[in-house]
Specification:
alpha/beta; seven-stranded mixed sheet; 4 helices; about 25% strand; globular
């Protein structure tokens, strides 16, 4: 696993395939979670994420050929200049057996990881999309507060209300990107198809303050049936 922009051809394609495999794993785990119903009313975002990672993702990753990846929750992001904690990323994914391109020696880069920010989705309104999803999620990747050295990352929306329509949610987020984040949005949400997954997934591209772009994958997981 490494920054896809640093390589061409097969290496870049591998990173994309691996990222898609992670999304497929997340979608599968959502289905498992809905069947087992481990959540209770009033559960906060942290607890939902912890159950998702500890009880499902870590136990199912081998089925998707991802046994070499380490899934961590609530990892501190350290600012390279101030060395202060700039924030905490909900889920980070690290390759624990990454090999050097020049040989078989282990050469792990601490700045290379997949990051996913999780948000609870309780409304499809524009105001909710901006407050809970864009300003506290998307914006953190654009600013470089999260995943400063990576050119791709992910957003996970835990959908908790059956009344929410994903198309309406997509429209609300696009409206926020168009009006509130226009200068940093290269392309708004576009459907991203992955074989075998039932959860809707989209991709948007954003211009960072460093002038580089970051591609964000948006995965919406319907967990309405996971509450007992």
């Amino acid at each position: 696993m490494t920054d896809a922009s640093r390589f061409s051809g097969s290496r870049s394609e591998f990173v994309t395939r691996e990222f898609d495999a992670i999304i497929s794993l997340f979608s599968f785990c959502c289905e498992k979670m809905n069947k087992q119903k481990p959540l209770i009313g009033g559960a906060d975002e942290e607890w939902i994420r912890n159950i998702f990672v500890a009880k499902f993702v870590r136990k199912q990753k081998n089925k998707f050929g991802l046994g070499h990846l380490l899934f961590l929750a609530e990892v501190a992001e350290i600012d390279s200049q101030t060395l202060k904690t700039s924030g905490y990323i909900d889920i980070t994914v690290h390759n624990i057996r990454q090999n050097s391109l020049k040989g078989n020696n282990i050469k792990a880069n601490e700045n290379e990881y997949y990051a996913f920010e999780c948000k609870r989705v309780k409304s499809e309104s524009k105001s909710s999309a901006f407050r809970e999803y864009a300003s506290q999620g998307i914006a953190r990747f654009i600013s470089g507060k999260y995943s400063a050295k990576m050119n791709l990352a992910g957003m996970i929306g835990f959908v908790e209300e059956k009344k929410i329509k994903i198309v309406a949610l997509q429209t609300a987020i696009d409206e926020v990107l168009k009006h509130e984040m226009k200068s940093s949005t290269v392309s708004s949400l576009a459907s991203h198809s992955i074989n075998g997954i039932s959860s809707p997934c989209y991709i948007s591209t954003h211009r960072r303050q460093s002038s580089s772009n970051i591609k964000l994958f948006h995965l919406f997981l319907d967990i309405t049936a996971a509450f007992n």
